[in-house]
Design a protein that fits this description.
Largest sheet: 6 strands, antiparallel
Radius of gyration: 34 Å
Structural class: alpha+beta
Number of helices: 22
Strand content: 15-25%
Distance between the termini: 76 Å
Helix content: 40-55%
Bound molecules: adenosine-5'-diphosphate
Length: 777
Amino acid sequence: MSLKASSGTTGSVPGPPSSSARGEGLSTLAQAALALRATGDLGTACAIACSCAVRALEASESRLLRVDARSGAVRLLEESGVETPYLPEHGGPVEAVMRSETALFDDGSAASAVRETLLWTAPPAALATIPLTTGSMVYGVLLLGFPGPRSFSGADRMLMQTFADGLAMTLERFELRGMLAEEHQRLLELERKKSADEEASSNLMSVVAHEIRTPLTAIKAYTETLLDSLANPHTPRERFLGIINDECDRLTRLVTDILDLSRFEAGQRPLRLSRFDLQRIVQEVADSLHAVARPRQIGIEVAVDPSLVIEADADLLRRLFLNLLGNAVKFSPGSGVVRVRAAAQGEEWTGSVEDDGPGIPPEDLPRVFERFFRGRQPGEQQVEGTGLGLAIARGIVELHGGRIWAESKGTGGSRFCFVVPLRQMASPAARRIARQIALRPDLRALFDQTAEMVAAAMDAEIVSLMVVDPDRGDLFIVASRGLEGQNLAERRITVRSGVAGSVAAWGKPVLVNNIETDRRFLRLNHPQYSTKSLLSVPLRVEGEVLGVLNVNNKVSGAAFDEHDLALMVALVERVGSAVERTYAYPDSGRAVEEAREAVRSLTRLRRDYLLGTRSVVRLARATARELGMTGADIDVLGYVAAIHDVGMIRVRDQVLCAPRPLRDDERQELTQHPEVSIEIIRPLEYLGSVRELILSHHERWDGSGYPRGIAGEEIPLGSRVLAAVDAYESMTAGRPYRAARSRGEAIAELQAGAGSQFDPLVVEALLRVLEREGGES
Ligand code: ADP
């Protein structure tokens, strides 16, 4: 097949290929479609797509760009499967195509046109830029370059678009397969965890019951004996009371251990960090054990580097050494020696505790850290214990980000070893990202705007955004609201300490109802916090926790709730993906600027009374749950319910406040607000489902809505929920130009609209929710 442009030119621009060439082109495309369907590898798909597109369409070169579904970052996909970040040229065809989702054909007549120069060795004369879309999701962009000017006939365009549609479906398939595999993995994980948890909890119950019964039986027996012999002066009262006292102590120990362990295992114990000299702590523990060790002539040798200073939770480390040394003494033969060592090794310290006891059978080595595991002690008297000591030791080491294991010494006896970071720091990956971020002063402005936006959206007086310091590995305040006049430079926190440090370490958002009674944190409130409730949410970039957003003092004085938390998580996720996009393009200021603009609009929502009210968010989420939607979909809907009217910012002045019928142009503008909303949040939002929900929330069940006039189940379920909830809310709350209606009237209106304006099933679900709420209030 000839690569030269065919004849039939008009002026300097050659015409489309002849019909026989097109016939060949069609068959190449058909083959490509088959090959694309069969391949399971992205690089191969790219190779097939590019070579076939070039052949079939007589292009000289082609490029395939992929759009990351989560962050919206654009990457050049190469045939090797390698992807490199690519920043579309400002005002260029890729940017335009991603925005409008329609193809652009540049015939080469305007020599000055932007042709995405960095993509080619020699920029093409003519360029076709075709979006790869399915539904409302842009999966990528295909670029076809032509060596000379070229006109594109309708048939050409159709051919290219058909090819692009096939390719988009392939990319979507890869995306969906990835998501499916992730989901599957998550489900398996959940199932595994659930059955392990169930088993563990039923084991725990029976073991706990058993462990508690032993001391209780003793206490009961001795108390009864004492009661029966009140009159008998020869009863050894003191001894019996001593036994009862010891058994009570044992019960207390057991209960404390179980409680501590459950908190460690739930990852719910922030560290109270300080810097101290380890030798002193270990020596104190060793001294406290001498009373037990000395009668059996057991020696305890402490070999801890005297210059070793660590940053850790001192109480927990005392407990770690007490448990390990306690076991070692317990299992040592008379006159044995217990050795404890510790020394620094790079950024970590290593420790070990060893004894000359019976050692641990190889099959027990991996199990000794399980809770309630107790090895058999052949031939010897039963050694006292709860079987929780080592589980607690492991919990302590892991809470510090370290690891612990058991070994058998070659000469008999056991050795417990552990490695723990010298200081609590953010992960190396998070610090690497933080270093890139630190090079971008313009991100400071985005962070600042984010603090403002979160304060507005969450209705909070105090917001602080902390990010990882790449050099020190702790977190500092990079932006805040409501903390003016305070010395922010000093308010650094260490990873794993306090609420924010725990969120940085756990990577999970936290809702604290009352900081003074929350068992996880148990601390006194700082004076600047007038309410006891707070939210702390991780800011993730490329999967790593780059920082933490903290929110205190709700203006209303009320406590934050799960709906607030879900909204804040959604907002912070979007900021994270905007940062991620700038991170992918180290020298672009534009991505940051666009994200700032979007964040600024979200900030305005509250001021303009366009932030979905709390009741809209709550009702939308409750109705979604009633309809059996999944957790992730409910969260997306809750977020959309809060921000979907952002497009109204641009039209509200003319429309919302007008106490008169709308003029045609105003009505026209009003009906465009879903599209305007999408446009505004685009720099933060690449999740197709969010755009789709916003776009469709004014569609009607019977197809008479706007902007697309779609009907029935073509309208996404979330949008159908939002339409009903929005209508109910606006009827009961009223508008400047319309009085509020009663709840009963609004319900009647919803029922009347079921089947025409609203999805009847959605109305039913919403009414059930309202009824329940009515019953509660
Ligand atoms: P406890 O000592 O209260 O039974 P632990 O969790 O501390 O509970 O230990 C669990 C089991 O691990 C013990 O029952 C014992 O079988 C084994 N083990 C722990 N430390 C040693 C040691 N130093 N030498 C031999 N076996 C040990």
